[in-house]
């Protein structure tokens, strides 16, 4: 689309109303039961939108093809790595500090005894994206349940005043401010309006006349516009988008969205600002184009990351075949899993995970690890356990002698 209506107003006021009516009444326009700053929301299905959807679907096929051929250890290590990065960046966007170390510790032990730990709900919910678990999104209570599962305990600890105090959402007003303390958006109020608007947004999400990727993009915008909670709106919205995308595309895409948003944060906020403005007259096309572009970048970066690691995995697999030609299959498997841990994870693989993949006892594993040359085995100590991975540089050096 050439220009947002808001920009056209300042460029040529004579053409502004004419262009609005042209877009609003276009055969390519889709109208929604939702008002933005008093104007009926609509979107034009532009060539940019259609081309971006085609690009996403094409790249997704390549990602799925690579994903299905990866060894299980590689998939799990890469998923955990991306999950932790996604949460760190989603938190960071909202100014919430979290470290990879603390999130990794939670991820390694999601048992009930750790349920009171900060970010437990967030890690547990993101972990479910790699399963076939269905998360209902039919009614407002479903949105509140997602929020409660992820953030309620954290917000009770951080600032009890921000706990939702309405029937489902908040009952008082909330605003979004710029770094200079200027109000840039005021969430809907009172709660009756929030509930009515969220019902409309959820209805849009089920409108099969629109491509699912467009629906996900528009729901993401509407959630931000409604701003149903005092705190945690951005992270809740990004999780919902991640979940919906993981259902439609390769599920690893659910761990890439915040990364790309963070890389394109000014465009992300600008699209919100444009569509929120009364002069844009409810035209959500700029946000749909921007968010689809975010998805497109995300899945292309995911493909690139997988292609690079698959190529390196083949290289090191070939080296291991030469170096371990006289070893048992179990030893070969151990080395290969340690290579996968080096390529696909942040910190390595735990002894418990290794024992599980190799189907051996902890004692047998310890004996096998001791036989690996010290220069080849990297050991990382976290708060509770050791993580192991292969020293790929040393492996390359040994095999090139």
Q: Could you walk me through the main structural features you see in this protein, from its secondary elements to its overall organization?
A:
By secondary structure, the chain is mainly alpha-helical. It has two domains: 30-303, Fic-like fold, CATH 1.10.3290.10; 324-399, Orthogonal Bundle (Arc Repressor Mutant, subunit A), CATH 1.10.10. It has 17 helices and seven strands. The strands form three sheets. It has a three-stranded antiparallel sheet. Strands 1-2 form a two-stranded antiparallel sheet. A two-stranded antiparallel sheet has the order 3-4. Strand 1 (29-36) and strand 2 (39-44) form a beta hairpin. Helix 3 (47-69) packs parallel to helix 13 (285-323). The radius of gyration is 24 Å and the shape is elongated. The chain starts with a helix and ends with a helix. 38% of the residues are buried.
Give a topology summary.
Elements: H1 5-11, H2 13-24, E1 29-36, E2 39-44, H3 47-69, H4 72-93, H5 100-107, H6 120-127, H7 140-158, E3 175-177, E4 183-186, H8 191-205, H9 212-226, H10 233-248, H11 257-263, H12 265-276, H13 285-323, H14 329-344, E5 349-350, H15 351-358, H16 362-370, E6 377-381, E7 386-390, H17 392-399
Antiparallel strand pairs: 1-2, 3-4, 5-7, 6-7
